[in-house]
Amino acid sequence: MKKLITVCTLFLGLIMLAGCGDKYEALPINEDTDVCAICNMQVKDDAFATQLTTKDGKNVKFDDIGCMHKWKEQQGTENIGMDYVRDYNNKEWIEYDNATYVYDASFRTPMAYGIITFKDKKSAEAFVSEQGVGKIMNAKELASHDWKQNTDKMQMMGEDGHMHKEESSHS
Known about the structure:
Elements: H1 2-19, E1 50-54, E2 59-62, H2 65-75, E3 80-86, E4 93-95, E5 100-103, E6 115-118, H3 121-131, E7 135-137, H4 139-143, H5 165-168
Antiparallel strand pairs: 1-2, 1-3, 3-4, 5-6, 5-7
């Protein structure tokens, strides 16, 4: 009986330890209170919102992936527990490293970095096909991206938070 209690105690201890690992989750966007940590603009609950959680549990939100990139340049990345972007089509949160990115300077994004995020390469390819422009990248390729803003495109999005083909085509 003593052996059974010891085994059960050890088993319970292992279960508790497994649950104590670092767990980071994307938090909902609150448009009334969330502002971008870089540009101080309101973070919309749309396809362009990004966020990260530091290892000490601080959540930081951004209105554009370019602002998140700028924050990482300023703060470094060693204290980031997890960073998230959103799928352009359904606003689902995706881990930054698992997303597929499409860039074109003509794409309108909140801070004019021109990067759209997708949950998978197939969705990104469909978007590029529909738009007729765009360079597809993964997170590693995005790390060496130029990160220039197209200030001519720093205009408001459509009410649905998406750009439309006529808005994103080359002028």
